[in-house]
Design a protein that fits this description.
Elements (H helix, E strand, L loop, with lengths): L20 E3 L9 E5 L1 H6 L9 H8 L11 E3 L2 E4 L2 E4 L5 E8 L5 E7 L14 E2 H16 L6 E13 L3 E11 L5 H9 L3 H15 L9 H23 L1 E2 L21 E2 L23 H16 L7 H13 L1 H17 L6 H18 L3 H10 L10 H12 L4 H7 L7 H12 L4 H10 L30
Helix pairs in contact: 3-14, 3-15, 4-7, 6-7, 6-9, 7-8, 9-13, 14-15
The chain binds adenosine monophosphate and magnesium ion (MG).
Length: 477
């Protein structure tokens, strides 16, 4: 039945040390049914499932039937979760294989929620439908917002329940990623004190994600720098669109620089750097305004794993890496300033003055609980009719803004019109739970073109109704 799909597996990760993986198949499920299938993504990957019936597709995306030409595996990794080191690993996910697309790009095809593995610890290896649909929505939204991210190819309902605080319908997500190598993967290898395996992993990552670094004299150091740059970019992008990842643990920091693992993430409405949604993030460690600091902290954990391979003199190694990490603030600061100038469509002026000018606006937004996305959109459209703008503080800032001759075309590239508004996401999930997929499909369609004005979709621009109960998100593990 699988002849024409176009799978092109080449499982290079299995060439690494045996301790990196556990080879096993997904645990079959009772009654798989396709809920979402991303045909456009399949096409981009050179895959075509259209010769299969829906039932046959469900068999593949549930792991009940394995693609021909691959041997699936779960990956070992560790990580710092909320600051504490833990041994982890794919406890509920299995990589079906590395698919090489027609453009030669290599992707992990992973089933998330596919059953227990040797890394499951106490967990059941499964996932609930709501969180898997949520990951599908947000990852696809982030992709269309032109930010590097893992993607979602399909969601199937398993026909089995999972026990959480309540009984929930189970599901499996097919996740597509540049790879699933994380800072936590390096932490795992470092914890084994196997310098050979570490060297191998570094060279593997360069080959797979940073080929431009091939032949560099100190690969560990060059890799570190490159990863740090990509993560500075990623956080700048999160800040640009008002996104709070929610669990930036080191096991959720991909070496590829892609955004990965969408659990309790959400988008900010009213501007407030302290915004957090995750029910388990009591201290606000992963709050909106903390994300850059946390990325630097995560990079420091990455650097620690590389100490044996930067210099033979370990003290010198530490010194070199500490210097590199200290650069994060400047690297991030420069990228962040450039991004904010882009959001305002203004030319680079004096750095201090620009900082002050941007801060003035953000402080005003904070004090007035102005919607982050809609304020930039109003600025872009010179549509300042809303009553919130009718005050002196704002008007004096606005007069300075207009004098700077903002470039609308630049602003359009930086400022989304549509983001996955929390109430729209919840509404789509609720209806999907009640077997009505209409709102989910409509939402996904809106999120495909986040930078294009569309007057028929204005309900997707509104922040949710004000409530006394703050919006909370759950990990859904
Ligand atoms: P996450 O919070 O999704 O980044 O996951 C952290 C760790 O918990 C990873 O090792 C997961 O594989 C594991 N995990 C999460 N949910 C489950 C589950 N239901 N069963 C087994 N392991 C899980
Ligand atoms: Mg994770």
């Amino acid at each position: 039945m699988q002849n024409n799909i176009g799978w092109n597996f080449d499982n290079s990760y299995l060439n690494l040390s045996k301790m990196m993986t556990a080879q096993l198949s997904p645990v079959p499920v009772k009654d798989p049914k396709i809920i979402l299938y991303n045909e456009k993504l399949a096409k981009e990957l050179g895959l075509n499932f259209s010769s299969l019936s829906k039932d046959q597709q469900a068999l593949i995306f549930s792991g009940n039937v394995l693609p021909v030409g691959t041997v699936p595996w779960a990956e070992a990794y560790a990580g710092h979760q909320f600051g504490h080191f833990v041994m982890l690993g794919d406890g509920r996910a299995i990589v079906l294989g590395e698919h090489v697309a027609p453009d030669k790009k290599r992707f992990d095809i992973q089933l998330k929620g596919s059953g227990k593995t040797p890394y499951s610890r106490g967990g059941d290896g499964r996932a609930a439908l709501g969180p898997m649909l949520r990951e599908y929505i947000i990852s696809e939204a982030i992709h269309h917002l032109t930010i590097p991210t893992t993607r979602s190819l399909a969601v199937v309902a398993t026909g089995q329940n999972v026990m959480r605080e309540t009984i929930l319908p189970g599901a499996i997500l097919t996740r597509v990623a540049a790879s699933h190598i994380r800072v936590g993967t390096f932490e795992f290898v470092a914890a084994q004190k196997d310098v050979g395996a570490l060297q191998e992993l570094i060279m593997y990552c360069i080959d797979r994600h940073y080929p431009e670094l091939k032949g560099e004299k100190i690969p560990a150091l060059q890799l570190f720098r490159a990863v740090m740059h990509r993560h500075a970019d990623l956080i700048v992008n999160y800040m640009r669109i008002g996104f709070i990842h929610g669990v930036l643990n080191t096991d959720n920091v991909a070496i590829s620089g892609e955004s990965i693992d969408y659990g309790p993430c959400a988008f900010m409405d009213g501007y407030d750097p302290k915004t957090k949604f995750s029910s388990i993030d009591h201290q606000g460690r992963y709050a909106y305004g903390n994300q850059a600091k946390i990325a630097q902290w995560n990079m420091a954990r990455f650097a620690e794993t590389l100490i044996p391979l930067v210099d033979v003199d370990l003290n010198k190694s530490i010194e070199i890496l500490e210097k590199e990490i200290a650069n994060f603030a400047d690297i991030y600061g420069a990228k962040s300033l450039e991004m904010m100038r882009g959001k305002l469509g203004i030319q680079a002026g004096d750095t201090e003055e620009d900082h002050f000018f941007i801060k003035e606006l953000l402080d005003w937004m904070h004090a007035n609980k102005a919607d982050y996305t809609n304020t930039f959109r109003d600025l872009m459209n010179e549509n300042m009719h809303h009553s919130i703008y009718q005050n002196e503080d704002f008007q004096s800032w606005y007069a300075k803004f207009i004098k700077k001759n903002p470039d609308k075309n630049i602003m359009k590239k930086y400022n989304p019109v549509f983001i996955p508004r929390n109430h729209k996401v919840e509404d789509a999930l609720q209806h999907a739970h009640d077997n009505n997929l209409e709102p989910l499909h409509k939402l996904l369609q809106v999120l495909e073109k986040p930078y294009e004005e569309n007057s028929n979709q204005s309900e997707y621009q509104m922040p949710g109704p004000k409530s006394d109960v703050p919006y909370q998100t759950f990990c859904g593990t």
